[in-house]
């Protein structure tokens, strides 16, 4: 029944995507960024449904070499309208060339989207969110992981908070289901996801993905 419902839900998404493509051919330039955001949100929704079908069939998502900086920027772009309406500042920091990591980009985009939306919902007007990706090096200076951070200057983590535990969330009224799904996604690709309070106030969520063995040093500008 669940698989059938998921399958049927893809039909209206196809209508939305097709309609956006038709509108995009004649839409004025000022509307095209909004149409692109709707198109990418529909694509992400379809991916969620496809993954639900794969879980019913016990089929894991595939992994391809991915630029996590671009994925983080894409997730932030999808959240632009919401943070603007909430009068929140969202900044993305992506340094120069970074090595690719093997993940499913849409699955990881859902993780970043969930972390940014959670932070936005925890903040009051005037608050700020910072999203960043950085290279992590070992004691010998060799890179071994990519770290993606989403942090805010809000009220911080509630007492007894446990990341990934359904029924417990870092925001008022939250269920914790989004964070639990995010944790499963990051673990599926060999990564780690954790949360911590910021010394200056607010919360920080960190997703770290290991670099493949023998990954070359990124070129420097």
Report on the structure:
The protein is of the alpha+beta class and 221 residues long. The protein has 6 helices and 7 strands; from the N terminus they run H-H-E-H-H-E-E-H-E-E-H-E-E. The strands form 2 sheets. Strands 2-4-5-7-6 form a 5-stranded mixed β-sheet. A two-stranded antiparallel ribbon has the order 1-3. Helix 1 (2-26) runs antiparallel to helix 2 (32-56). The protein is globular, with a radius of gyration of 18 Å. The model has no long low-confidence stretch (mean pLDDT 82).
Describe this structure in a few short sentences.
The protein is α+β, with helices and mostly antiparallel strands and 221 residues long.
Strand order of the largest sheet: 2-4-5-7-6
Task: Find the count of extended strands (DSSP E, 2+ residues).
Answer: 7
Main sheet attributes: strand count, strand direction, barrel closure: 5 strands, mixed
Strand content: 15-25%
Helix content: 40-55%
Task: Give me the strand/helix succession.
Answer: HHEHHEEHEEHEE
**What structural class is derived from the secondary structure elements?**
alpha+beta
Oligomer type: single chain
Runs with pLDDT <50, length 5+? none
Gyration radius (Cα, Å) is 18 Å
């Amino acid at each position: 029944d669940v698989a059938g419902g998921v399958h049927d839900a893809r039909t209206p998404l196809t209508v939305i995507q097709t309609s956006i493509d038709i509108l995009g051919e004649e839409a004025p330039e000022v509307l095209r960024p909004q149409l692109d955001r709707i198109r990418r949100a529909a694509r992400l929704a379809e991916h969620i449904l496809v993954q639900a079908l794969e879980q019913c069939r016990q089929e894991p998502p595939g992994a391809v070499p991915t630029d996590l900086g671009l994925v983080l920027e894409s997730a932030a772009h999808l959240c632009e309208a919401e943070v603007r309406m909430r009068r929140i500042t969202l900044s993305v920091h992506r340094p120069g060339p970074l090595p690719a990591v093997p993940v499913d980009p849409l699955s990881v985009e859902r993780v970043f989207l969930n972390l940014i939306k959670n932070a936005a919902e925890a903040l009051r007007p005037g608050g700020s969110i910072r999203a960043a990706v950085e290279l992590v090096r070992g004691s010998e200076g060799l890179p071994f992981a990519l770290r993606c951070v989403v942090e805010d200057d809000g009220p911080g983590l509630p007492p007894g908070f446990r990341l990934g535990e359904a029924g417990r969330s870092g925001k008022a009224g939250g269920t914790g289901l989004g964070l639990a799904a995010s944790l499963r996604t990051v673990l599926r690709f060999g990564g780690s996801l954790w949360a911590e309070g910021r010394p200056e106030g607010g919360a920080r969520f960190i997703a770290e993905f290991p670099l493949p063995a023998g990954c070359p040093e990124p070129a420097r500008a």
